[in-house]
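Today's session is about reading a structure prediction critically. Students often jump straight to the picture, but the first step is always the sequence itself: look for stretches that repeat, for charged clusters, for runs of hydrophobic residues. Only then move on to the predicted structure, which in these notes is written as discrete structure tokens rather than atom positions. Here is the chain we will use throughout the hour.
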Amino acid sequence: MADKKIFAGGEFLITDVAPDDVFTPEDFTDEHKMIYETGSDFVEKEIAPVIDKLEEKDPDLVLELLGKAGELGLLGTDIQEENGGLGLDKVSTTIVAEVMGPAGSFSVVYSAHTGIGTLPIVYFGNEEQKAKYLPKLASGEWCGAYCLTESGSGSDALNARTKAVLSEDGKYYILNGEKMFITNAGWASSFIVYAKVDGEDFTGFIVEKDFPGVSTGKEETKMGVHGSSTRPVVLEDAKIPVENVLFEIGKGHKIAFNILNIGRWKLGASCVGGCKGCVAEAVKYANGRTQFKVPISSFGMIKTKLTDMAVRTYMSESMMYRLAGMFDDKLALLDAEAKKSGAENAKAIEEYAAECSISKVYGSETLDFCVDEYVQILGGYGFCAEYPAERYYRDSRINRIWEGTNEINRMLVPGTMMKRAMQGRLNLLQAAQAVAGDLMTYSPLSVELPDTPLALQEHIIKMSKKLALMVAGVTAQKFGANLAREQEVLAKIADIVIEIFAMESGLLRTLKIISKDGEEKAKYQIAAVKVYVDEMIPRIESWAKQIVSYVEEGDMLRTQLAGVKKLARYQPIDAVTLKREIADRIIDLESYPF
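Below is the predicted structure for this chain, in token form.
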């Protein structure tokens, strides 16, 4: 067998990807399955019985549960074995993030602790810092938090006003400032804090809650995730030992941005678990709720809702594990010495910054879609706190805000790809030029597709890639260095690229299942890909038309619109019947069907 191809970040847009090139949940090892079972059992047996009590923000209960998670190894998948963790692959980390998705507010505590509260030390701490802090974080003895946001610097994170000045004796940095909206602040023992040394050099620090001058403000009253602690962290002449500088003076941005990449991917994985929970709870209710003498699950519009929830979840799940596999493939290239360097590991993960943003946007918006439909299926009961749908609805909304708003992440998707094209790391512009040339001779009527289950969908995804390259090319040519100011256009390009990654992830996963188990075993996955592509192509075509209508005019506009029409040519399918088949499967299983 040929060596597995290692893709560059963003390369999926310009390269054909084979099913064997991606990791899917069907590739789980026995160890992966055991981790999944351990995490699921923890949520079912430890979290579910106390989920209402967790809403009361009980610190003793939260820290007790964190300790239990630590005993099971659920907090240490990313922490090296010598520092008290398990040192597992990124697929394992994705699994734990997913199974924590339905854990209500505890999933927020877990995510902040294991992600942004711990990983800066894993990746950028020196050996002394790792030995001192990571065992406590891996066991759950300590809870971690992350302090980046300030009142005047939300998305503009590097515009921090918190200052750090070296003490006269050279033993401490004196920090002054206030960080806002800090998850876990009320019960954290350690904080990753960013400040500007001498008001200039953006730098990370490991700060303990008992250091002099460190305090927290009052709890924020939030729309959702009530069981999590969210407070300001106040630094008033806080004395931070010089040995607690994280990484290097002036290199805090490298920590912040790399850790946010990981946080975005893990958030997307957590959203998958939430989506699966919504599907299961919604169908159980629909099967038990009788109207006009029949279960409401027998109604066509309810079936459509259940199917749409499950299909989008399938695309999201496929995307998250595909990305986890990409991380593991990239990290496997590091030599033994590089693997010991957290910074080298973080650099490997940074390769897929655009895919991390895609996962964050798609995962959070899929969860919002699912919780909204979940509430709608329950009707008036969905609006009442007696049912979990109300909590799901409130809790999900924050996901589109933190880890970088979805608007910021939409800007990052094309921005990152364009930057890499300029650096010669991604042949984006050459690919766009090739598409422009191919359009002169391409005729969709002359295309002959093989007689395979998803040949049409595979073809149209390839055409969607060409369409994305086409609109990106004309836009870049029109605006050049001023492109970053055209946010409305960039957002539409991002939406096209996001949907391509989603469609292709679901397609490749399904083709892999077909190859291994045959068409019959993949019946519902095939249906899912067909109905999703059928729904997305008109949207992608519309976004493309809006872009070229803004960029061009006159004869050139007509030419570009003709090109869009060529590439987006697609014969709709009977999606109603396929959706009914998927819905019947969901109704029969009373759970996520794939």
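Discussion point for the tutorial: The two ends are 29 Å apart (CA to CA).
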